[in-house]
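User: Hi! I'm a student and our assignment asks us to look at how structure tokens line up with a sequence. Could you show me two examples?

Assistant: Happy to help. In each example below, the sequence comes first and the structure tokens follow. Example one:
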Amino acid sequence: MARRMAQQIEGSWWGVLRAGATQLRIVFHFKRNPDGTWTGTVDSPDQGARGIPLSEVRLEGGRVFVKVESVQGEFEGTLAENGREIRGEWRQGGNTLALTLSPGEPPLPRRPQEPKPPFPYRTEEVIVPQRKERFNLAGTLTLPEGKPPFPAVVFFTGSGAQNRDQEIFGHKPFLVLADYLTRRGYATLRMDDRGVGKSEGDLKNATTLDFANDLLAGVAYLKTRREIDRRRVGVLGHSEGALVAAIACAQAPREVAFAILLACTGVPGEQILYRQAELIAQKSGVAQTLIERNRKLQERVFEILKREPDNEKAAEQIYEAMVANLISPAPLTDAQKTNLREQAKAYTSPWFRTFITLDPASYLRKVRCPVLVLNGELDLQVDPEQNLPVIERALKEGGNRNFTIKRLPGLNHLFQKARTGLITEYSQIEETFNEEALKLIADWLDQTVKKQGRR
């Protein structure tokens, strides 16, 4: 019986957690060791989390017990007679949710916008020299049909390690954007982030300011290509990538012909994170007392980072603040302590220290080229009410009169048509990038950039 059950359990099992309107897929990967013990990992694809280690897996008389100490979660279920279902409960943070697991991986979500070859344009794998720091970036260049030279757009991704397609939650928004714009007559260059995919370079110690050098390397590379109109090379960035694009424009005003800023921040990262945490918690139905408690922890963490330059001392103080903020009276396990210490250490990275204090407005005031600024009305990560007025004011203060700012109704941070804007929706929505938003970008390019070419 035990051997048969072990054979049935080993492998991948998936199910869906349902809490009100929120649905989260969860995938367990069980592996039996030669000595009969078990290890494994769990994925939460809808939250972008994969490979979370299981701290305990036990099989007892047809029942399965799983603990995931790093997220303070556990699952207990019963294997069906036919071995095709494990029916049980997931417990986490004081909540208990029914969870039924089926063998295998969840079906791949439909992505109807994802382009498939053959394409009516030329694609080329390219190497982009980043001469300032002496490493190479890898990317894909698309060249439209027609007579060169072509106007061109260099893409830059949002925060975190991203590949050239900005692949996130099962979507490839930059692949969709590149395909759309190339069919409209624009060359595009999208690159793997430094240290990601085929790109060289150090991502761990890099900051937003360093990324601007990577983007400008892409601009410089395109200007070496005979197929590209050197006078009409612009940039497009999403989220942090939009801030990177603004910095690049400010630092090299003669090099960048235009900028498309998607979900761009206008206020420092500290303010972004306060508002982001508040909006997401409110939409998720979190109690106001907990929202206020989390805000106080954030304020304490940011105060430590701004006051204490020593990373080890800062990380220890942040760890102590996080422990003091916990509500549960139960003592922490070793795994929980390790997880909190890793979180505390992550706050002290060069990127995070820079992000919370960097003021986008100081760079936006120096942007002289034509600018298109777009934000989704349901964006909970970069709130349009918080950021768009500041962006508009900064551009005006700098003397830029050639800009367009639009808040797009019903769109989330990824520019998908959404219901709530919550991150948990991203992977569930089939649309990768809203068609109306794509058309708006291309139309703006036609009206703005093609005019430059007729001068």
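Example two works the same way, sequence first and then tokens:
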Amino acid sequence: MSRRELREQIFKYIFRIEFNDREEMPEQGRFFFEALKMEAQEKELQEIRDEDAAYISDKSNKIIEKLDEIDAMINRQAKGWTTQRMGKVDLTILRLAVYEIVFDEDVPTGVAINEAVELAKRFGQEESSGFVNGVLAKFA
């Protein structure tokens, strides 16, 4: 998988935290990878490689472990907004990008912001990309 595809899968994985308790995430992870394998089979794509699955799982779990800290950072930077008021898609994208900006030394800040904006265009509402870009610009 490309970095962009991996990031999209991480976004989908951590989006589940909005609907499940943290204690349920190991089980949700199993469901996620089962669905990913089935999707690949249905589309007749190559099966997900073990190293890609490990990368998705590892990074997603690191983000979930730091969720409270990440949310606090977002709440400090998003003037007039709190994580409780944000749309779930936008919030999930912000969580992923903030993790990459603050904690992941392998991802340059500009790349994290650009990829987050692209995710917002693909999965968010019409104004999501501008909102995500505005919040993340404060982290740059």
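Here is something you could point out in your write-up. The CA atoms of residues 101 and 111 lie 9 Å apart.
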